[in-house]
Amino acid sequence: MDRSFARAFPMLAGASLALSILISGCGSKPDTGGTGATTPGASSASKGTIGVSLLTSTNPFFNDMGQAIDQEAKADHMQTVITSADNDPAKQNDQVNGFIAQKVSAIVLNPADSRSIGTAIQSANKAGIPVFTADIASLSKDAKVVTHIATDNLAGGRLAGEAMIEALGGTGKVAILDHPVTESVMMRTKGFEEVINRHNAEGHGKIDIVIKLPGGGEKDKSFKATEDIMQAHPDVTGIFAINDPSALGAVAALEKANKAGQVKIVGFDGQPEGKQAIKDGKIYADPIQFPDEIGKQTVDAIVKYMAGDAPSAQILIPTKLYKKADAEADKSLAAK
Questions:
Q1: Are 240 and 269 in contact (CB under 8 A)?
Q2: What is the pairing mode between strands 172-178 and 238-241?
Q3: Rounded to two decimals, what is the model's pTM?
Q4: Using CA atoms, how far apart are residues 136 and 133, in angstroms rounded to an integer?
Q5: Domain 3-145: CATH architecture, name and number where available
Q6: For the chain, which residues make up each domain, given as ranges?
Q7: What confidence tens digit (pLDDT) does each residue in 50-89 have?
Q8: 74 has which bridge partners?
Q9: Cα–Cα–Cα angle for 91, 188, 305, nearest 5°?
Q10: Under a CB-based contact definition with an 8 Å cutoff, are residues 277 and 283 in contact?
Q11: 208-245, pLDDT tens digit by residue?
């Protein structure tokens, strides 16, 4: 065992909970190349350990999911080791190998790359450790996942398309801030395009999708991508951003270009900062997700599997369209 692995997975018995540090908000980003956090109060009565590799620790959505997994695991007398892949497939692969070496009872993944994650999942399969995917699915046909628990991203993308049609009055030019390496985003974009194409075919107006650029699902990258979009297509009237960080990056770029309000933005997620931007009129709408419910149902599926039952192969959680009227009635925003 090399020293980096030893640092990544120290002896955890009796360790205090580091989850609040490990998956803290955007203000800090610890080295989570495999640094594990175990649920406190673990005892010999523990039913096992769940190894979790989140996509990133800089997106509140995944933090909320990780916290929900940890809390639900506690309630079921299980421990958790929670890490962040930091959007790096190679790092995530190392984390899975670490979980295998620790002989965890189950592994939960938000794949950093839906295709390449298959190699890591196959390693867990060979070790006899069940794998569950949350929010983002594996697209590897040779890797076995017990259950995929996620937002119904295809239906959510359709809601985003409907919101864009409404925002533009049925006519305009639209750009997409994409992130096509993860299955969840592929489904959102597919749903969005389905609705726009159907709208055009039915003759209710014409909305052209003129460009798709990768924003990485991150604010800074989406800021730059939006600048590129406006340079190439200054007449764009709408932007579909595949998550709230992307949408907020677009907002910042439009504000810098003095085009705030001229381009309608539809995001996806329903994070507090995104909801606030909807209330402030900077984002038109979001299909909102429920990461805490994804986390809870993920642990429920693991517990069911460990009890000898067969959980469903896929559990999809519906989104809900969140607009300005919803934000104005949202007491969680008013309290801030």
A1: no
A2: parallel
A3: 0.80
A4: 6
A5: 3-Layer(aba) Sandwich (3.40)
A6: 3-145, 153-288+323-334
A7: 999 999 999 889 999 999 999 999 999 999 999 999 999 9
A8: none
A9: 60
A10: yes
A11: 999 999 999 999 999 999 999 999 999 999 999 999 99
